[in-house]
Amino acid sequence: MIEHHVRVHPSADRLHREDQLAWRLAAVATATEELDADSVTMAVNRVIDNASVAVAALLRRPVAVARAQATAHRASTPGASVFGTPARVSPEWAAWANGTAVRELDFHDTYLAADYSHPGDNIPPLLAVAQHTGRTGADLLRAVVAACEVQVALVKGMCLHAHRIDHVAHLSAATTCGLGALLRLPTETVYQAVQQAVHTTTATRQSRKGEISSWKAYAPAFAGKAAIEAVDRAMRGETSPSPIYEGEDGFLAWLLDGPESDYTVLLPEPGEPRRAILDTYTKEHSAEYQAQAIIDLARRLREKTGPLEQVRSVVLHTSHHTHHVIGSGANDPQKYDPAASRETLDHSVPYIFAVALEDGTWHHERSYAPERARRPETVELWRKITTVEDPEWTRRYHDPDPERRAFGGRAVITLDDGTLIEDELAVADAHPAGAHPFDRAAYAGKFRTLTEGVVTSADQDRFLAAAEHLAELGASDLDGLFPAVDIEAVAACDASLPKGLF
Predict the structure, then answer these.
(1) What is the C-alpha to C-alpha distance for residues 10 and 368, in angstroms, rounded to an integer?
(2) Which stretches does DSSP call E strand in 371-479?
(3) Is residue 182 one of the residues assigned to a domain?
(4) Residues 154 and 211 in one domain
(5) Angle in degrees, CA 388, 394, 398, rounded to 5
(6) Is 324 exposed, middle or buried (0-12, 13-18, 19+ CB in 10 A)?
(7) Which residues pair with 88 in a beta bridge?
(8) Nearest in space to 181 (alpha carbons), one of 189, 170, 171
(9) Which PANTHER family did the record assign (predicted)?
(10) In sequence order, which residues have a C-beta less than 8 Å from that of residue 357 and are 6 or more positions away?
(11) Pairing between β-strand 385-389 and β-strand 311-318 as defined by DSSP bridges
(12) Roughly what angle, to the nearest 10 degrees, separates helices 91-103 and 123-133?
């Protein structure tokens, strides 16, 4: 790997474009050629995972709204497919609808380091443009691997959340690079597109604070749509704000560490295998990633606690991020509100721990149902649960060795008689270092479970066969990555929506 040091430069420096981070990211993408076999396997897993959670979310309102907006932009041939409808639409709108469907349940992949990310969010815009431009499955795989390489590098090297900047700013750069790899664009074109994409998708983290709204699902879809539009503009020869990262009025100077910014971004050398996607991991449970191990821990603790009405308090000792973003350290009263939105509840580890402790399981719909959140005994237990930051868990969260990195915590349960019950879990069971790491069979099982009753068994088989042979698919075969569903149920859902502009 090559260390690229990124800092602010005054305009008078006339920083050469080859020395700018946007150029270096673009160069990684355009030099992505022969793919590592393990990276290809993981990319296929991600395609399966995305379809699983997208289909499971088809009748949810934000997904239906995004789909309605997209289908108002029908394309003549070729266009791109949208989950849940036979319509072909303009590719940026397909990316919008499919990206929202993938993100809605907070149930697909994650990568955590200096910042946060869901690398699978790259796939909807890449797949949409692949369909629209007649690319093959092998082209799509190259694009996914390149995009993940860039996103993981940025997430390792630049912390956005410390400055309350939403993580989709890194996503838009990664998707743009993936599109460059997909279309085999010149580095100059990708460089210009990266700068526009970052410039237009930088937003605050208020989308993940307090009463969290449905925009949480739309945010990555917006980044993907913007990336496609940025690439289209750059392909037409237009330029963008430069240098977007290093400029004295740019990203680092005003949104991150300021004029004294000094970041190190590790990028592969020419010819080095693109393996960053292998550092990413998926979710077994539909909740924010730091809650994955906490759910598994709660399930394990059920055997030790006895009747839950005797619990006096629960303290979760965990990392800075878990405490301050999804724990009581966020100081968000909404995280303890039984009437809170689903999006807020999936970012409330006290709620999640309470329900998992009571039920011994987690379900992407039932665990968030309003009647479930308002159950009196649940509310009573929920409000006894707090989090604290433990420096050791924070250190483990940021450990440079992926084998030692930990995203869990330690639970201390105090009973009314003073008895203490303690247990800890470093990583979720489904994590690569967990008790039951996800493999291809687990991804296929997740797909079958989430699409049961929506996709027939025969169509499940057809989708899995297409995904597992992605490297061999021709351009027309990419339609097979969209499982056939009950079109009438989806159409009835869409018909119930209020009308917008389109």
Answers:
(1) 50
(2) 385-389, 409-415, 420-425
(3) yes
(4) yes
(5) 155
(6) middle
(7) 81
(8) 189
(9) 2-METHYLCITRATE DEHYDRATASE, 2-METHYLCITRATE DEHYDRATASE-RELATED
(10) 298, 301, 302, 305, 308, 381
(11) parallel
(12) 150
Q: Report the distance separating Cα 369 and Cα 365, nearest Å.
A: 6
Taking residue 272's Cβ as centre, other Cβ atoms within 10 Å add up to 14
Distance separating alpha carbons of residues 300 and 105, to the nearest angstrom: 24
Q: Are residues 347 and 252 in the same domain?
A: no
Return the structure tokens found at 193. Answer: 């597109």
Go through the chain and tell me how many residues it has. Answer: 502
One domain, residues 56 and 183: yes
CATH of the domain at 26: 1.10.4100.10
The angle subtended at Cα 78 by Cα 77 and Cα 84, nearest 5°, is: 105
Q: Are residues 76 and 130 in the same domain?
A: yes
Q: Which of 409, 425, 441 is the last residue of a domain?
A: 425
Same domain, residue pair 235 and 129: yes
pLDDT string in tens for the chain (502-residue length): 999 999 999 999 999 999 999 999 999 999 999 999 999 999 999 999 999 999 999 999 999 999 999 999 998 789 999 999 999 999 999 999 999 999 999 999 999 999 999 999 999 999 999 999 999 999 999 999 999 999 999 999 999 999 999 999 999 999 999 999 999 999 999 999 999 999 999 999 898 888 889 999 999 999 999 999 999 999 999 999 999 999 999 999 999 999 999 999 999 998 999 999 999 999 999 999 999 999 999 999 998 999 999 999 999 999 999 999 999 999 999 999 999 999 999 999 999 999 999 999 999 999 999 999 999 999 999 999 999 999 999 999 999 888 899 999 999 999 999 999 999 999 999 999 999 999 999 999 999 999 999 999 999 999 999 999 999 999 999 999 999 999 899 999 999 999 999 9
Residues 381, 268 share a domain: no
Q: Do 301 and 182 share a domain, yes or no? A: no
- Flag whether 223 is in a domain: yes
Question: Residue 283's closest CA among 54, 470, 442, 62?
Answer: 442
* Structural domain containing residue 323: 290-425
412 and 345, same domain (yes or no):
yes
Give me the DSSP letters along 186-251: -HHHHHHHHHHHHHHH--BGGGGSSS--THHHHHHHHHHHHHHHHHHHHHTT----SSTTTBTTSH
Q: How many domains does the chain have?
A: 2
